[in-house]
Predict the structure of Chalcone/stilbene synthase C-terminal domain-containing protein.
Amino acid sequence: MGSTPAVDELRRAQRAEGPATVLAIGTANPANCVAQEDYADFYCRVTNTGHVDGLKHKLNALCVSASGSQKRFFYHTEEMISAHPEFVDRAKQSLDARLELTVLSFREPDRAHTVTCQALFGDGAGAVIVGADAVRPVEHPMFEIVSVGQTLIPGTEHVITMQLTEHGLDGDIAAKELVPLAADNVEQCLHDALGPLCLDGGEWNDLFWVVHPGSPLILDHIERALGLKQGKLAASRKVLREYGNMLGSTLIFVLDEQRRRMEEEGDGAEWGVMMGFGPGFTIETMVLHAPERRNKN
């Protein structure tokens, strides 16, 4: 029997040499689209709550003035809700029938935070293909994933408390606390992520930005905290305006929009940051490198 290669040699041969790289991005939305100016009427009609004092006025104000969105997409339709009253009445035991996107959080206005959630969230799906050592010209690397980090802000467990229960997706978002928390902590997160790469000594405007657009206020506060020029968060604002907040998949939509701007409009730098926010309060930071921009610069 001949000599066999060492195990570490086999493992090296099986591993990629290059960095993890985004090779493709895909996004999709369901067919049902509701304009924000029409959503209050839609919601009150399908939940039979038009008689609730002040509900339509409050919901309409949130949809039109505060959400930053012009329209949203939904998996659930008026016909579906009529056929499945358990979507609205959470007392009906049918969680298995509710495991569909924002149907999880769609409910009658039985709690104070319900109206806010109904004004903000929509449905969308996003996916990326991540690989390494791209085979050209078949594969085209879009963004190299250089580093990732997660920061849990102490004492903020109450800010986002969404969890899956027997009644669907439930919890609360303390919006008044959430907005300043993101702005007050974002710069330190950037230093922690970019410092080891010696990229935190320049202007924040030298980077491209892929930021989860939880709300216009979050984007406004981050923009001011970092001194970003108008248009640096344009990809985030466009996605929020055209699709609403689709929870985690929103970030994939923003990444795809930033890719489009860089390819079609020449918008963007060689280095950038992707940021998401979650329960905790948690700030997720990912440093991205656009190899195609290096070749053009």
Observations:
- Residues 142-296 form a domain with the Peroxisomal Thiolase; Chain A, domain 1 fold (CATH 3.40.47.10).
- The beta strands are 21-28, 32-35, 71-74, 125-131, 143-152, 163-165, 168-170, 208-211, 271-278, 282-289.
- The longest strand covers residues 143-152.
